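Worked Example 4.2. Consider the chain below.
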Amino acid sequence: MKEAILAYTAGIIDGEGHIGCSFNKPRGHWEKTITVHMKYKKVPHWLHYYWKGSLYQRKDKSWQWKIGALDGEVMLRQLMSYLVEKWDQGHIWLEIVELGKLSRRGRKDSLKMKKAKEKLHKELKEMHN
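Applying the procedure from the previous section yields the following structure tokens:
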């Protein structure tokens, strides 16, 4: 990926992005996403073109681009050296992704794993306030 694209993407994530995760109770796992939500469609469409993910227009006619853990991890690892404002959030998000890889699908996490994920999620959530 060209340096200009990486730097521009990092600037968008730093300024307009949300790096987060939430626990999906019905599915029993953490959902990790990176989103950008804007009134105008040009930047979300640009992100979708270069990074894939999902793109949709909301009821209020604004646009949201979202990328999940698999593609988001690939993207974020390339952006980390360019991020400023969201560097800490990106680092914690990548730790959560790594812990998710250690979990076994279809099995409950150990208490230690569950506590580690909850601790990181709490740290990430506090950065959003």
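Residues 3-128 form a domain with the Endonuclease I-creI fold (CATH 3.10.28.10). The mean pLDDT is 91. Compare this with Example 4.1 before moving on.
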